Amino acid sequence: MALMPKRVKHRKSQRGRIKGNATRGNTVAFGEFALQATIGGWVPATTIEACRVAIMQYIRGEGKLYIRIFPQKSVTARPLETRMGTGKGEPDHWVAVVRTGTVLFEIGGVAEAVARECFARVSHKLPIRCRMLKRPTAK
């Protein structure tokens, strides 16, 4: 089932703009390898679930997956063949607003080659460009 908030303050939200770089959630915090967005955009809840399924099928339970984004923005849509001027449509789906530099997913407990191949497969499902990060080693 796709992710969605349990409750929200307002059912309908305005579109807004995605500008600037992420200042929070832009480093590897939980796992050893991460998938980072190189451009901003919206990631639908169904896409996040598809990525989760693809990662879990690829690592086959030998690593741990951390999902660092959550869809908190509602996107409305009007019914097809509706005339103009009847107001804003009803909430249709939920999206996560992703800024440039946001870490989307993290993996721990797997080899680097496995993580690289896994993130390469997952990045094809995403509507934004991504790159892989490694946790910096402490010296």
Question: How is this structure best described in words?
Answer:
This protein is α+β, with helices and mostly antiparallel strands. The chain has 2 helices and 7 strands. α1 (45-59) packs antiparallel against α2 (112-123).
Please outline the helices and strands:
Elements: E1 33-37, E2 41-44, H1 45-59, E3 64-67, E4 73-77, E5 90-98, E6 103-108, H2 112-123, E7 130-134
Antiparallel strand pairs: 1-6, 1-7, 2-5, 3-6, 4-5
Low-confidence stretches: none
Largest sheet: 4 strands, antiparallel
Percent of residues in beta strands? 25-35%
- Structure annotation, total helices: 2
| Helix content, binned percent | 10-25%
Structural class: alpha+beta
Spatial shape: elongated
| Average residue-wise pLDDT | 95
- End-to-end C-alpha gap: 42 Å
Order of H and E elements? EEHEEEEHE
The Cα radius of gyration reads 17 Å
Count of extended strands: 7
